[in-house]
Amino acid sequence: MTQSKVVCLLLTVALSISLSACGFKLRGDFTLPDNLQKIELLGVSNNDPLFREVKSRLQHYKISVTDKNPLNGRDEISLPRLTLLQDNLERRLLSLFATGQVAEYELIYTVSYTLLMPGENDTRHISFDIVREHQDDPDAVLAKSRELNLILKEMRRQAADKIMRQLTNLNQLN
């Protein structure tokens, strides 16, 4: 082996050790705590798009999801309970065309959920916003309507990912 190959190999090993030592993970690589390997997921409706997205994410990461939590003899929950509350999309006016028609909106997607862990009396209430800008064009109403639906779908995906990230950092949730 030449000296340059040895140096290159040592640099590669040193870089990979330093990345793993600092806790670096690839984006989207979620490892939930052991106490969240089985979870009860509740929502406004099982057909709610955010509910389906979160359930899909949990199942993708091999988390057992149930919608019924058996109660033990003392009426305490036996599984962590994640309850998705009503999500809300708000549009705020950002700018107007010279004609007075809306040119640009700020889309604010608010998501709220609660988390109750077995053996705990306090329910954790978590809420966050995802914000996007959306340009409107009165001459392309159908296209802009479809674009708005795609943006909302992407915002739901981001919300589900954010919930997963927050669950991985369970001890840091407020």
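That was protein one. Protein two is written in the same sequence-then-structure order:
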Amino acid sequence: MKYIMLIYQGAALERQAALPDAEQRQVYADYQGINQNPGVTPGLPMGLPENATTVRVEGGKTLTTDGPFAAMKEAVGGWFILEADDLDAAIEVAARVPAARYGGAVEIRPSEVYW
């Protein structure tokens, strides 16, 4: 089964930036290790939420908002696709994502087609 893994940074970016150089290098190595796992399709790098534009359509009119539509502490900072046997296997990989250790979270969604 394929799972979409959404990485919420939360306080992780700030906490990681405050780490000593050796620990910061380990964080990057941990992300690289996850990306090299069989079954992982890395997502493209994402910019910061404050550089985002959100689009909505109301009454046939296109409206844009700078940044995320909803003000949130835990903006999505990245994503990847994981092919795993089951949810337990996906949870094991999610627990290895550095953001989950440093104040963020990883949301796991099964990849399903609804149309």
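The longest helix spans residues 21-35. Keep this in mind for the problem set.
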